[in-house]
């Protein structure tokens, strides 16, 4: 697959995810409790840097712009498969979560503890899916900066997951503790 066709396909997958997110955001519950603004800004800046390193050559100076994964048909196939699978998992989890979803760490009015669907596989399947999709995209572009961006995004999503879990533990107590013992945070059966 030509580099421009791969770039177009990867961007189209991400744009489709963005459209689903925007449409689904209309049907969320009102927040009862939310994270502090400073916490949210830090996460947004970190994620903007990570996605910027993947998608923008201007944010991959020097060694970050070096190619670590050669352009090849197998790399393009892995990139498209992983990006697509990750986005599909994130969308499934987002739609499954329904009105409980929030872009910021929050407990919603009438919040329910969701443990089925993708949430029986990992506690944070949206982050898992987006991380897999970002890794796939980084593989497709093949730059060192993209691989660094995946590590940065992983750290950011783990930090956000820890904060969410504080909120959910305060809301659901022992029920959330049992869920934490039974289901891994981000990587099924591992972490």
Polypeptide structure, described:
By secondary structure, the chain is mainly α. Helices cover 63% and strands 4% of the residues. The chain has a two-stranded antiparallel ribbon. The protein is elongated and about 50 Å long. The model has no long low-confidence stretch (mean pLDDT 90).
Could you give a short description of this structure?
The protein is mainly alpha-helical. The protein has helices at residues 3-24, 37-55, 73-97, 125-141, 144-172, 174-182; strands at 31-34, 106-108. The protein is built from six helices and two strands; from the N terminus they run H-E-H-H-E-H-H-H.
Keywords:
two-stranded antiparallel ribbon, 191 residues, Four Helix Bundle (Hemerythrin (Met), subunit A), mainly alpha, 2 strands
């Amino acid at each position: 697959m030509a580099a421009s066709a791969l770039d177009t396909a990867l961007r189209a997958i991400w744009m489709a995810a963005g459209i689903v997110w925007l449409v689904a955001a209309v049907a969320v519950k009102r927040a009862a409790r939310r994270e502090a603004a400073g916490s949210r800004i830090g996460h947004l800046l970190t994620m903007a840097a990570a996605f910027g390193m993947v998608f923008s050559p201007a944010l991959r100076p020097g060694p970050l712009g070096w190619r670590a994964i050669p352009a090849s048909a197998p790399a393009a196939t892995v990139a498209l498969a992983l990006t697509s699978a990750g986005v599909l998992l994130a969308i499934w989890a987002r739609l499954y979560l329904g009105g409980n979803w929030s872009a910021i760490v929050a407990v919603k009015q009438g919040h329910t503890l969701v443990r089925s669907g993708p949430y029986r596989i990992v506690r944070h399947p949206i982050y898992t899916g987006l991380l897999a999709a970002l890794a796939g995209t980084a593989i497709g572009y093949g730059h060192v900066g993209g691989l660094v961006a995946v590590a940065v995004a992983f750290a950011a999503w783990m930090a956000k997951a820890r904060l969410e879990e504080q909120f959910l533990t305060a809301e659901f107590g022992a029920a959330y503790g049992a869920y934490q013992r039974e289901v891994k945070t981000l990587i099924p059966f591992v972490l």
